[in-house]
Amino acid sequence: MTKKVICAILLVVCVAGLAGTFLFSGMFQHDDPVKSFSTGNATYKSGAPAAFQHHESVQAGVESFSLSMSVFAVSIRGFEDLFQTADGNAGARLELSKPDTNTLALIVGSNRPPGYIPYVITRSFALNQWHTFDLRIDRNNHIIARFDGAQVVDQTEPTLSYAISDVALGSGLSGLRPFRGQIKNAAVSYTLFARRVNTGALFAMRIVFGLGIVLFVMLFFAWSRPVRGSAVTLRYDGEDSRNSSA
Q: What 8-state DSSP symbol labels residue 246?
């Protein structure tokens, strides 16, 4: 290959590389845990304030969330929430209701209408006895829920989008639905993360590709010019050879 062809190929590589730093800037991103929180052995009894209330000021992505508790209910009146991670439908909450049967459902926020996804845990919540509930949600929105030791939810839902801002046990939906029962051995933990861009590496790559483009453009045009030389005329001056007559 000629120098011009090699230069053109390297120029295309540099242009593609520079464009790639904009189109695929996510390659320069990484996730850093910014906050971890946990509490355990919380208890709650009907008529008392929420067993545990925690306001989370850090707004970031949820790396993981876990909850475990033991629950006891004597009666159910309408809708009663056992816990929440945020007010309204913005977070996740556990809701006990009696439209027809004693239903325990996990309600988790979503970025699709109507803004939340319900997961039925059981439609036959037995009164006057203790039940256990365990919940795990990872950063891939994979939910695992267990009720009385049996796994009742195990699925991944890409549209989940729930906040952790106002955590409460023994209440939910902005405090409008208190739980009329008991909670013991409650434990909550979560980890939040922030997505950061490695600006140093990204800037360095753009500089390298940008300088490469300038260099190869200059070389391409320099090698494209015709080589001009000065014409040289060679002259020979000699005497005519003549035959002299005797």
A: -
Residue 42 CB neighbours (<10 A):
18
Phi and psi of 156, rounded to 5°? Answer: -110, 130
pLDDT (tens digit per residue) in 151-166: 999 999 999 999 999 9
Handedness of CA 119, 125, 128, 130 (dihedral sign): negative
Q: With contact defined as beta carbons under 8 Å apart, do 73 and 125 qualify? A: yes
The residue ranges of DSSP E strands in 46-164, in sequence order, are 52-55, 61-73, 79-84, 92-97, 103-109, 116-122, 130-138, 142-147, 150-156
36's enclosing H/E stretch is: strand 29-45
Point out which residues pair with 55 in neighbouring strands.
166
Closest CA to 140 of 156, 154, 121, 127: 156
* Single pTM value for the model: 0.67
